[in-house]
C-alpha cells in the first residue's frame, strides 16, 4: 500500500511539473504574438496623426480604430478590417442633429 501512495504522489508531482513547464511556454508565446500584433503598423503615418484630415469615417464613427486606419470605423463594436485592432469608443462622436456642449 505504501508503494502505491508513493507512486501516486510521484505521478501527481511529475504531472504538475510538466503542466507548469508547458503552460509557461504557451504564455510567453502568446505574449510575443500579442506584442507583435500591437507593434506592427505598416502603412500608418504615425508622425502625421495630429495633422491628419479628421473628416473620414475612421474619425467620425461611434467606434474607431485606435490607429485611424483609412476606411475603418463603425457604429458597432468590432475589429478594424485593416490592422485587426479592437475598435474603441470615439469620445468625439456626435450623433446627427446633436451638438456637444
TrEMBL record:
InterPro entries: HMBD
GO-annotated molecular function: metal ion binding
Domain Heavy metal binding as annotated: residue spans: 62-86
Record region (Disordered): 28-51
Span of the signal peptide: none
The protein, known as: Heavy metal binding domain-containing protein
